[in-house]
Write a structure and sequence with these properties.
The chain is built from four helices and two strands; from the N terminus they run H-H-E-E-H-H. A two-stranded antiparallel sheet has the order 1-2. The model has no long low-confidence stretch (mean pLDDT 95).
Length: 81
């Protein structure tokens, strides 16, 4: 059984943020936490998203984030995945 697109993207996002210092309290700090900043790209098949694009799905009420998993969960939920 193959992993779903959502599961694969979740793993990519959490992997990209594994070295970040949490909690992250501001959008700018979240983008900066990705290895290549806003240009960090996660892709599974035809589904592709940069950290900059993902950041547009978030709002001030989402912060602070306390773990890579919470960032991935919120982004993917907002993206409808």
């Amino acid at each position: 059984m193959t992993e779903s697109v959502r599961d694969q993207l979740h793993a990519q996002i959490t992997g990209a943020l594994k070295g970040a210092a949490f909690p992250i309290t501001k959008p700018e700090d979240l983008i900066a936490a990705f290895p290549m900043g806003a240009e960090t790209t996660c892709q599974v098949g035809d589904v592709k998203m940069t950290a900059g694009e993902a950041g547009t799905l978030l709002n001030a009420g989402d912060f602070p984030f306390t773990s890579p998993e919470s960032v991935a969960d919120t982004i993917l939920s907002r993206a409808g995945l």
